[in-house]
Design goal:
about 400 residues; alpha/beta; Rossmann fold; 3 domains; four-stranded antiparallel beta sheet; 14 helices; 13 strands; globular; oxidoreductase
């Protein structure tokens, strides 16, 4: 059995990680872990021989196997404590079946852009579905495959984790420690809310970017200078349209309901602009543009929290399921960033959840929502010198 991990141990959160799928995200994850926590053993699984060879040559993995290699099964049965599924959703099911057949008892996470389908497959396939914690790094590149991978891909990026009421209390802190060691920022979301949220901020924008490029291409023959003009800001704003068509087609259909609703809403918004233009309504056009401009200016800048203004939140926990998921989701919902999270076990039935927050978010709302949820909370300022995060 894997012993619970806390920061006091001074050890890495995991000893041996297997990464299934060494494409852009999977290989970048391997590279990032290798750079941040070189003591962790990393093994990769990929169908492509060249990809496996590159991962080994670059030192990103200690071993690299084909899916049918007996070494993969041997490792899952007795050698690793985390499996990261960085493969498309439509092929993940077979790996869930492998993990089930090999009675894997460690933590399973993934990097898929949608959660409804993959979570349903995990629930009906895995013998220990409570050990599956859905994950989604909000990072990518117009480059595909291992050739586009880089160790800094997740620096400053959001990484969504979706624990639920069944998730063992120790799982989230361990994954949080691993992910934040890569420079990413963890956001906890209920898995049932994930697909709708990312449709708005990721999937709809991708379709919009593709649509804008199509618009430009349709007029390129009529005006040769157009594509030269498009090499400026237009090129930057539509960069994501260069992503893998096969990958994004899969994402679109995996999240068809939420994506469809988002596209319909965008059609309505564009229609409002078109109606104002057709009616010669300058006041309405100005109001629409002003609303968007104000909202855009209100978006937070790049993640640069102050390391000198930390706040420790201590929450006594009773022995009940889902408490860590509930607390971390509340923290994310009010914009608070958890720099580190730790569980101090007091007795067999009680513990204290300790969160160290940066100077972001609404601490007042955090306190109010935690109290309304039935938690007893204490806050205390913490200087950077008092808090040393052990990676």
């Amino acid at each position: 059995m894997i012993e619970p991990h806390t920061e006091q141990t001074g050890q890495a959160a995991f000893r041996h990680i297997v990464i299934v799928g060494l494409g852009l995200v999977g290989a970048s994850f391997a590279a990032a872990v290798r750079a941040a926590q070189p003591d962790i053993r990393l093994s990769g699984v990929d169908v492509d021989g060249r990809t496996r060879a590159v991962a080994l040559e670059r030192g990103w993995t200690d071993a690299a196997w084909a899916p049918d290699d007996p070494a993969f099964e041997h490792c899952v049965r007795g050698g690793c404590d985390l499996v990261v599924l960085a493969a498309p959703v439509d092929v993940v099911e077979q790996y869930f079946e492998h993990l089930a057949a090999w009675d894997f008892g460690g933590i399973v996470t993934d990097t898929a852009s949608t959660k409804s389908r993959i979570a349903a497959v995990a629930a009906r396939t895995l013998p220990h579905p409570e050990n599956y914690v859905p994950g989604h790094p909000m990072a990518g590149s117009e480059k595909n495959g291992i050739d586009g991978a880089r160790a800094d891909l997740f620096q400053g990026a959001h990484w969504i984790l979706c624990p639920d009421a069944a998730t063992p209390a120790e799982h989230f802190p361990r994954l949080h420690e691993l992910v934040t060691s890569l420079g990413a920022r963890v956001i906890a979301l209920p898995r049932e809310d994930h697909d709708e949220a990312v449709a708005v901020v990721s999937h709809v924008p991708h379709i919009m970017a593709s649509s804008l490029v199509q618009l430009a291409c349709r007029h390129a023959d009529d005006q040769q200078a157009l594509m030269r003009l498009a090499a400026g800001g237009f090129k930057d704003s539509t960069r994501i349209a260069a992503g893998s068509p096969e990958l994004w087609c899969g994402i679109a259909f995996d999240n068809a309901a939420a994506l469809g609703e988002g596209l319909a809403e965008v059609q309505g918004i564009i229609g409002s602009f078109a109606e104002a233009l057709a009616a010669g309504d300058r006041a309405r056009m100005t109001a629409l543009l002003a609303e968007a401009a104000e909202a855009r200016r209100a978006l937070p800048a790049a993640w640069v929290p102050s390391t000198e203004k930390l706040l420790e939140v201590r929450i006594p926990m009773e022995d009940r399921t889902g408490v860590v998921a509930e607390v971390t989701t509340i923290a994310s919902s009010v914009g608070c960033n958890i720099q580190s999270i730790e569980i101090d076990h007091i007795t067999a039935d009680s513990a204290v959840l300790s969160l160290v927050l940066t100077d972001e978010g609404d601490v007042g709302q955090l306190s109010a929502q935690l109290i309304n949820a039935g938690f007893s909370v204490s806050f205390s300022p913490l200087s950077a010198k008092e808090h040393t995060h052990v990676a």
